[in-house]
Amino acid sequence: MMYQKALLFGDSRVAAQVLAPGLHPRKIKALGRKVAGFDEATWVQHREGIVRRGNVLKFTRAVSCEEAPRKGTTTAAAGTPHHHLRSNKTKSGGGGGGGGGGKSDHGAVVPPPALIQDSLREMLMATGDREIVEASPYDAIWGIGFTERDAEAMREHWGENLLGKALMEVRRELRESQSDKN
């Protein structure tokens, strides 16, 4: 999201900084606040489409090993930490079939790109028809503005939850796409 935000306003310097390896999500968010030429009205007009498209890419295209999600990291495409989607569904299986995996820079075995993409999609689809929210007490635009613990009690005061809405829209599109194939 922050990469696309920088590009929207023509700030190639911040766009390049956002893509630097190993940045903490807070640093990426801080860089997004430094985009030169930022205009709130323009951002509001484009932000939901940017995040929706990033999430479509996140859940539909294979990622390279370098792009493989690591706990607590953020993807450039969507700008969302991977640990926000949780599923009770577990998938077991061997190291499976066709190679293409490798080791991450942390020494962990990284599955082949297609398996990463499939597992991300499975996590999203495993949410069923449940409402998806970003339960962040610090963000009432992309999230609900409350913790997971306080969410239901404060429902009438929720923020915009734009990230949750984008994820639910992508989930709907993926479901429709799958039913069109069947």
UniProtKB/TrEMBL annotation:
Organism from which the protein derives: Purpureocillium takamizusanense
Gene3D superfamilies: YbiA-like
Highest rank taxon of the organism: Eukaryota
Region ranges (Disordered): 67-112
Biased amino acid composition, Gly residues: 92-102
Residue intervals of the NADAR domain: 1-175
Signal peptide: none
InterPro entries to which the protein is assigned, alphabetical: NADAR, YbiA-like_sf
Entry-linked Pfam families: NADAR (PF08719)
Protein name according to UniProt: NADAR domain-containing protein
